[in-house]
Amino acid sequence: MGRVYDFEARRLNGEPEKLSAYQGKVLLIVNTASKCGFTSQYSGLEALYGKYRARGLEILGFPCNQFGKQEPGGSDEIAEFCSVNYGVTFPMFEKIDVNGKNAHPLFQYLKSEAPGLLGSEPIKWNFTKFLVDRGGEVVERYASATKPEQLEADIEAALG
Prior knowledge:
Layout: E1 8-10, E2 16-18, E3 26-32, H1 41-52, E4 57-63, H2 75-86, H3 105-113, E5 129-132, E6 138-142, H4 152-159
Parallel strand pairs: 3-4
Antiparallel strand pairs: 1-2, 3-5, 5-6
């Protein structure tokens, strides 16, 4: 597997989706959680989506319960939470693991392409973000504390 587009994941409704559906788009891939100190970033992510979607940005949310058990709900609960509390309209996928032996292959790939601080691959917490260019190459990895609005210059550059 050499690009993000080579992977598949299940949407919150259980339907499988090939990430090749996003070919030619700039992607911001985020591991999310509903009960995290960074959960309010959903607002910033949705604002970015609203601002840049027409130019080719897609934000892909992947709920994860590996950090402090901060995503305990099922797909229906996650969908309702995101919609009711943050008006999320960007694609959300089924809950996955991002670290360990059961880590989703997409996140195994993302971590190998864009290691974190000091070359460390494991994701440290919820709302780690990966920016992917229109060719499916990982451009950058951002820490949980990096607010979505801080990514605007990099998103603008990737959109061209």
